[in-house]
Input
Amino acid sequence: MPVRPGRRLAVAASVVALSLGLAACGGTSATPATTTTASVAGGPSSQQPAPGYDPDASPYPDTDATPAPSSGGPEPSPSVVGPPAPASASPVLAATIHAWTTMTWTIYSHTDREDAAAGTYQFDCVGATDYFLSLGAPAANDAMRASLHIGARYVPRPQAVADYFAALPTGGNGRWVPARTMAEVRPGDIIAVPPRAGTDESGHALIVAGTPLLLTNGDYALLVYDSTATPHGPADTRTWDTRNRPLPPTAARPGGRPSGLGRGTIMIAPTSTGAPGTLYWSVDGPEYGAQIQVARALT
Output
């Protein structure tokens, strides 16, 4: 059976059942879907089934790396918070902000289940971006899913999204426009982070929540929304928001890890041409993933 370009959605019977269904944005083992959408009609490239929970596996970095300063605005520091944008800046951002401000609880899970009326959100990084795109830019989301041959109950892997963004023409394709320089990054844009080759990284996906802030080292601090169990620095909302349910405890993390939808600040190092380049999990924090790709959904 060929590997598909996304992860299959599945619904858990209860939050307790998530102890067997949580991991990072990647994985291999399948879980049957029980959503009300149509049967899967997938395609042949990189669509991934929902994985099992490996409590000791973490694709996210645990060490810090400090870039050398050069020129710009504030010095890189975990205390730096990127400037926020209003909901009016983007329909995708508006949908994300509405969910975050009205949610009652959220948890990071490959078993995607969203209930806006109850304010409950369980999804992983690509589950979150797929959901908010379906609300704020459904035509653009449908166009990308169709191009990637994503089935009705699947969501695309971060690598597949990055490949789609990288292949966009400079002027866009009518549904999406790429951000080829940091100056073109706007609130509501989607950031796709492919994994680095030869690592256990699974990639990541985020929603831009503000405008890039130039730092003294020439990198940029950027406020983002995403679903994760690894907060983006000490100012991340998941470090204090009691609505973020923790992952099941492990020997390494007996208290669990607050997870799900939240807002934090990452750092992006541009390439020599000014394009979005390397993502750092927090300002002055650890590097994660290969070169990122950024694009804006138009409709």
In short: The CA atoms of residues 42 and 77 lie 44 Å apart.
